Amino acid sequence: MRRFILPLLLAVTGLILFGQGGYIHAKALFAQILLERAFTETIATGRETKPWSWADTWPVARIEVKRIHASTIVLAGSSGQALAFGPGHVENTPDAGERGVAVYSAHRDTHFRFLQNVVIGDEIDVTRRDGRKFRYRADSTSIVRFDASGIDPLRDGYELVLSTCWPFEALTPGPDRYLLHATLIGPVP
Amino acid sequence: MTICGEIQPDRRARLSRKMRVILFFAFEGAAALLIGFAALFLSLPAWSAERTQTAFLKPGDARSGSLLLKTEDGYADASRLGIDVDITVSGPTVRARVTQVFRNPTQDWVEAVYVYPLPSGGAVDTLKMVVGDRVIVGDIKERQQARIIYEQAARNGQKAALTEQERPNIFTNSVANIGPGETVLVQIEYQEPVQQSGNEFSLRLPMVVGPRYNPAPVVQSVDFRPGGGGWGASKSDPVPDRDRISPQVLDPATNAPVNPTTITVRLQAGFPLGEIKSHHHAIKTESPDGSTRIIKLAEGAVPADRDFELTWKPAAEKAPSVGLFREHVGGNDYLLAFVTPPSVEQNDRKPLPREVIFVIDNSGSMGGVSIIQAKASLTYALARLQPTDRFNVIRFDHTMEMLFPASVPADRERVGQATAFVGALQANGGTEMVPAMRAALSDTAAGGDTNYVRQVVFLTDGAIGNEQQLFETINALRGRSRIFMVGIGSAPNTHLMTRAAELGRGAFTHIGSVEQVEERMRGLFSKLENPAVTNLTAKFSDAAADITPSAIPDLYRDEPLILAAKLDKLAGSVEIKGRIGDRPWVVTLPLANAAEGKGLSKLWARRKITDAEVARTTRQESPEDADKTILALALDHQLVTRLTSLVAVDKTPSRPEGEPLKVSELPINLPAGWDFAKVFGERPLLPVTPMERRAEAGEARVQVAALKRAAPAVTAAPSTVQLPKTATDAELKMILGVIFLIFSLVLFAFNRRQALIP
User: Fold this and answer.
1) Distance from CA of B111 to the nearest CA of A (A)
2) For a Cys staple, B733 with which of A21, A114, B197, B654, CB 3.0–4.6 Å?
3) How much is the pLDDT for A169?
């Protein structure tokens, strides 16, 4: 029986690791379903609606890229915990449609994986929690260090930045960030 | 068949082995997902518990957090502010409208608190709050009551603004419930008299409160109330409101200047104008006609980090020596008179020899250019001493040093020694002004040598919070000494200068740059060396008058007498009498000739309030009586004072229930020319990036100090967004997991085969 101990141990370890990885993806997927529901309610009632009773973050916007059928619900704040469930609206940057640079951030391997498929010229729609929708056009990308983004959130002009980790294929976290810059075209009726 | 029969069990065995492997994977996959979901629900409550502490700050916690709303990554910038000042000078009065634009770029509901200076003689009478297209006009209320109204509104989610006086020249505006991304305008208006000195008229607009030194509450003093039966309360803190006058100051080495300010001055002097000069800012001047000028800042918005000083002269050789203005308000007539006594040249008599005590502040707040100006001024003053004079030099920071044990004759050797002493001074340490003033006023010759005129020349930026202690010291010890204040630096404490000079029966002057040293010190010396106009009285022939200042102070060379009076009727004349040196001087002004002026009643009331505050300091009136007088005047004339505040409340609530309100104390610039390390202690050494000291103006109305940065690749800048970590190890873990599983499977299979072989 002893000879089964090693493979069993390996199997359990593998199981846990795979489970943890799967859990991250499952969480990301499952939370988006709840978030979608909460966001619809937010727009309908005009009140902040928590996706589940014990959550202390709430959906604030929906980002869509129609061409590649990508859609994701954004949460308030960009803490590590919030980012597990959805993209975060980075603190102290303006809302979409306001003057300045609205910055949204998400994981490269879950919610913002689609960023690698977004090309210059794509239209990005952002629906705010008040139900207003703004259309942006992707106009450039850049790669910066996390602490030298060069983004002044109160800059003149109406801009949007979607940020995620770079490179997309890497397995370990790194200091580089991929930024997709977009400029407001106007509100979508 | 047999072949088939032989093969079949074999195939079944193979099939079942395949099935077993597939089942194994399927089972493991399902288990992994199950574990994942279990973990999701188990770990979430723990996460939310950990978050609640940081996400919802109690208001009490937030206050100590000051401006920087901390987030997880430790960055954030809170509300931003733009200032627009519109000044109209009409004849003798200055009417200023200060608009503060509060912008909240954060996602939270914010209460903004901004501490700002105003001229110390300014009468603040109007507060307006503009929310969207609505204008809410503030009411004057007793201070406590106003605060209760404001706090109630803040709790109810209504927008509200509150203007409070911390010192006669320091005010606080609080604005509650500024929504995410919202902009609220707060407008205050004040009135002040034009300053005149000889041929020159001036106005001064302070823009920043220099960081004050607040002495530590070490020594307790006891306050015995009359009729308290011997029981008193110990006053343990010389600056009880230290928190209210100490906003966060940004280090200019690591922060771009904030609070961009635009200034427009409409100057209607009432006489043809000659030279106009702004001493510390570049200006553009337009002249629609001979006696009107419109003055704007040449480069648009400037950071609020130094006083704006504007002087103008008449085109004529001599300025008018008399000005008389009247206003009719609420059944009373108010009169404002400017009279400049003639300067009498005294060739007939030698001036009295003087004993001059120079006091120089070399505390940390004087670091940078201030100490250079102070040293240059004092060196100039030493050179002007006559051999017949006596003098001494005192320097102070938190310590104090007298150059000579007692005053010495101003011979060459002693003056040289003093000049060397002054030249070696370094600015450092705290500002304990009271002991220095006490030493300067201790008159060793009190009994005997009164042939000397005793003068104290005090050079400081006045950056202290315990002004009241200094005033009490002056009042108690002044004796026959006269105190001349020299305000140094880009943002001197004008309230301290004027009040100390008034209590010390002297004069004051400002030196804001090295270029001004000689001109201003020459002016000061002509005041020191020439006889004062003394024993001044004013008498109205027909009208019953309430005159302020109640006791007219002595006037020095080039100073005008400024008199405000409330009259029952505008008839007859006013006779002003005095003595210039030993000659009598009389002037009679017929009231019928007075020109129409604006806001004179407010100036009269403000001056009366100052009289009451002085009487309170000098104990000529009990604190209760003085407070009663101040309160009545303030409520009557709608003025902000120590006891009254303006409060404006928007009737409709705007903040939804349940949304927290965060307090954000707006930071201020370090006054120009100050040395941050000298005031706040050493900071970790940073690579100094040269930065343009200029605040950027945004849209016409909403101005925001934006960082001008050429390349985004510079080191972490305070205003750039720090991006969160956006990579998970999900893939890594899954890949590792699969590798482990495959490996275990291989081992499993290997072990099984070994087990089957024997």
Assistant:
1) 16
2) A21
3) 81
